[in-house]
Amino acid sequence: RKEFVDLYMNYVFNESIREPFEDFMRGFIRGCPARKWKMFLPVELQIVLQGHTKFDWHLLEKNVRYEHYSKFDRTIRNFWDVFHKLPEENKKMFLAFLSGSDRIPGYGLEHFSFCIADRQEENPDDVCLSASTCQHILFLPR
């Protein structure tokens, strides 16, 4: 039985995917030369490619910049009160809305920041919440 299990595991995890993995590896190495990736440990490379999956939401709040707001404005206080009460999955969805990804880039949360801006519309009730994903700006009407 042990030999059967060993052979089956080898087939599933090695032999059955050898050809597609080699195709992937050739393409990856062509776009990202291997000598540059060798400086990373496997766990570090995973973080560089996929981003961080653990979050400190209070640190994120601390790193926010404000434009036409201060962190003491009622709108901002209400925003963070509601945000911190959201389930984890909804917080990740907010992050995806803001940045285009539900993960923090490899450089880490302590260096990730975004801006909450007020466009100073004449009638803020007619304006929807929006974001600039490239610049990490959340346009939050009053």
TrEMBL record:
**What EC number(s) has UniProt assigned to this enzyme?**
2.3.2.26
Question: Which sites are catalytic?
Answer: C134 (glycyl thioester intermediate)
Q: Which reaction does it catalyse?
A: S-ubiquitinyl-[E2 ubiquitin-conjugating enzyme]-L-cysteine + [acceptor protein]-L-lysine = [E2 ubiquitin-conjugating enzyme]-L-cysteine + N(6)-ubiquitinyl-[acceptor protein]-L-lysine
Supply the alphabetized keyword list.
Ligase, Transferase, Ubl conjugation pathway
Transmembrane stretches in the record are: none
GO BP: protein polyubiquitination
Give every HECT domain span: 1-142
SUPFAM superfamilies reported in the protein's UniProt record: Hect, E3 ligase catalytic domain (SSF56204)
Q: Does the keyword Iron apply?
A: no
Q: Does the keyword Repressor apply?
A: no
Q: What class of enzyme is it?
A: transferase
User: InterPro entries per the record?
Assistant: E3A/B/C-like (IPR044611), HECT_dom (IPR000569), Hect_E3_ubiquitin_ligase (IPR035983)
- Specify the protein name: HECT-type E3 ubiquitin transferase
The opening ranks of the lineage are:
Eukaryota, Metazoa, Chordata, Craniata, Vertebrata
User: What would be the name of the gene that encodes this protein?
Assistant: Herc3_0
